[in-house]
Specification:
Number of strands: 12
Oligomer: single chain
Structural class: alpha/beta
Bound molecules: zinc ion
Strand content: 15-25%
CATH superfamily of the largest domain: P-loop containing nucleotide triphosphate hydrolases
């Protein structure tokens, strides 16, 4: 079935106690505030305790996959569940919260399998790392290292629980495990939702208007990271390789949009160092969006990793 946009999917991984649930709740609140419907597939339903109201009311769009891990034993069930959500609920966004032992990239591979590969849009994995647990230094190998190494984005979380002076060294620890992934810092799940569900050229104007109306009404006093959004105008008619190189040289933490190459229209999606140009399939790309790519970067005051 054709639609104007594919459904973005975010995979949230991380150890027990890293604050995954807090992050998911925060994303749900953000979606609710903008009237968007979220579906959640969780390995740990019981632990979440998500309020039905936060999901936007009504239909069943909270699915628990119990009795195994979504990245391996339950991977077929994950694909079936996503397809069922797509056909029965058609949500605006999907969040997959994995168990504490799942590997984000193994989970992500399921998004490239048919039939879900036909409609999954912007997809990314974020691995949540508790700064407090990291400071205790007991989880630096095995599954923890595998999770961190395969993340698109890393969230150094619960930064309010460690001394400010310790943050740089903690961040360096995870950067060493995955030099390609940008590291975000937050407490209480307060990540800019636009980094996890980035706007494309099709909804940037809406988001900009909303941001202007509620400038930084955060209720915690931590030094919030500042991000800027800009729109690139990609030259029309480059080869696919040249278009990729052109965007790659200008990409940010998240990159999203559409280009017209010599090989045809391409959907542009980037997270961290990863940048992909893919054919739109049956996606209906409005002509006025072609050649427009939205990039989110750190604000000018930042000289940290990416
Ligand atoms: Zn697994």
């Amino acid at each position: 079935m054709s639609r104007a946009a594919r459904i973005p999917v975010l995979i949230v991984s991380g150890f027990l106690g890293s604050g995954k649930t807090t992050l998911v709740r925060r994303l749900l609140e953000d979606a609710q505030a903008r009237g968007e419907r979220v579906a959640i597939v969780s390995n740990e339903f019981g632990a979440l305790g998500i309020d039905e109201a936060l999901l936007g009311g009504g239909e069943e769009r909270f699915v628990e996959l119990a009795g195994g891990c979504v990245c391996c034993q339950l991977s077929d069930e994950l694909v079936d569940t996503l397809e069922a959500l797509r056909t029965q609920v058609d949500p605006d966004r999907i969040i997959i919260e994995t168990s504490g032992v799942a590997l984000p990239f193994e989970t992500q591979l399921n998004l490239y399998r048919p039939p879900v590969s036909a409609w999954v849009g912007d997809e990314a994995s974020v691995v949540v790392v508790s700064a407090a647990q990291l400071a205790e230094g007991e989880e630096l190998d095995g599954t923890f290292a595998d999770q961190v190494a395969s993340a698109d984005l890393l969230l150094l979380h619960k930064i309010d629980l460690v001394a400010v002076e310790a943050l740089a060294a903690l961040e360096a620890t995870i950067v060493a495990m995955n030099p390609d992934a940008p590291v975000l810092r937050a407490a209480y799940g307060q990540v800019d939702p636009a980094l996890l569900f980035p706007a494309g050229p099709e909804d940037l104007a809406v988001r900009r208007a909303r941001t202007a109306g509620h400038a930084h009404g955060h209720d915690h006093a931590h030094d919030h990271e500042q991000f800027v959004t800009e729109e690139l105008r990609v030259p029309i008619g480059l080869s696919e390789a040249d278009a990729h190189a052109w965007i790659d040289a200008r990409k940010g933490l998240r990159t999203k949009g559409f280009v017209a190459t010599q090989a045809g229209i391409r959907v542009v999606q980037g997270v961290g160092r990863r940048l992909e140009l893919t054919p739109p399939g049956d996606l209906l790309v409005p002509p006025d969006l072609i050649g427009r790519v939205v990039v989110i970067r750190r604000g000018p005051s930042h000289d940290r990793h990416m």
